[in-house]
Amino acid sequence: MTLTDASGLDIKGRGIQELDDVSEHHRDLETLLLDNNRIEDLQGIQQFQNIKHLSLINNQVEIIISYFSSFFFFETFHNNFRSETY
Fold first, then answer.
1. Which of 8, 18, 39, 55 could make an SS bond with 4 (beta carbons 3.0 to 4.6 A apart)?
2. What is the C-alpha to C-alpha distance for residues 75 and 39, in angstroms, rounded to an integer?
3. Distance (Å, rounded) from C-alpha 77 to C-alpha 1?
4. DSSP letter string over 17-69?
5. Where are the domains of the chain?
6. Which pTM was predicted?
7. Are 24 and 1 in contact (CB under 8 A)?
8. pLDDT tens track of the chain, all 86 residues?
């Protein structure tokens, strides 16, 4: 895993399938770059309460949950989204 700085983590292309695969030591991140992984849903995203920039380019996510309005920058290219509110 590559730490972009004290508040960011770049873990692109690591075969990550679930957000729970991201270490519990990284819960205070502001930037999380998860491009080119195998993430199918965003269950567990609420554990990252300080996220301002979330990048999920080229994953397999299908559902966007309504609490994403709190993100400053949210990249989602090359996914198959539908929107649902919880």
1. 8
2. 14
3. 22
4. --GGGS-GGGTT-SEEE--SS-----TTGGG-TT-SEEE-TTS---EEEGGGG
5. 2-84
6. 0.72
7. no
8. 455 566 899 999 999 998 887 877 777 888 999 999 999 888 888 888 888 888 888 988 877 665 555 555 566 666 665 555 44
